[in-house]
Amino acid sequence: EVQLQASGGGLVQTGGSLRLSCSASGFTFTDYSIGWFRQAPGKEREFVASIAWSGGGTAYADSVKGRFAISRDDAKNTLYLQMNDLKPEDTAIYYCATNPRRIGARADYWGQGTLVTVSS
């Protein structure tokens, strides 16, 4: 059974930083691209960042480029999202997911989400 457990969310002030983690199990982690999405209250889910299964090629939404960094530790089956210079508009539930597709904010398997709240 594929399981994705996101953690690391919390309350932070504008300009602060957080590091999200996503622990994966139930599949061969190294075989999959994996990424982060977010959904703010009253808004549609959107793609945030992804990292390829091989070579670690990355992609980011324009809104987070230069502030967020995605990485993976294949030895620990863990995905990370380092978020710096956070803004109130980054407030959302953040989800990790396998085989992320930017268009339509789609993916194959989803974690349960972790809440990030950025206060102004």
Q: Could you give a short description of this structure?
A:
Strand 4 (34-39) and strand 5 (46-51) form a beta hairpin. The protein has strands at residues 3-7, 10-13, 18-25, 34-39, 46-51, 58-60, 68-73, 78-83, 92-98, 114-119.
Protein architecture, described:
This protein has no helices and ten strands. Helices cover 0% and strands 48% of the residues. The termini are far apart. The protein has 120 residues and is mainly beta. The strands form two sheets. A six-stranded mixed β-sheet has the order 2-10-9-4-5-6, with no helix packed on it. It has a four-stranded antiparallel β-sheet with strand order 1-3-8-7, with no helix packed on it. Strand 4 and strand 5 (46-51) form a beta hairpin. It is globular, with a radius of gyration of 13 Å.
Please write the string of helix (H) and strand (E) elements. EEEEEEEEEE
Helix count from the secondary structure assignment: 0
Q: Hey, roughly how much beta strand do the residues contain?
A: over 45%
The major β-sheet equals: 6 strands, mixed
Q: Segments where pLDDT lies below 50 for 5+ residues?
A: none
Query: What value does the Rg take, in angstroms?
Result: 13 Å
Average pLDDT works out at: 95
By secondary-structure content and strand pairing, the structural class works out as mainly beta
- Strand tally, please? 10
Task: Give the overall shape.
Answer: globular
Helix content: under 10%
Order of strands in the sheet with the most strands?
Answer: 2-10-9-4-5-6
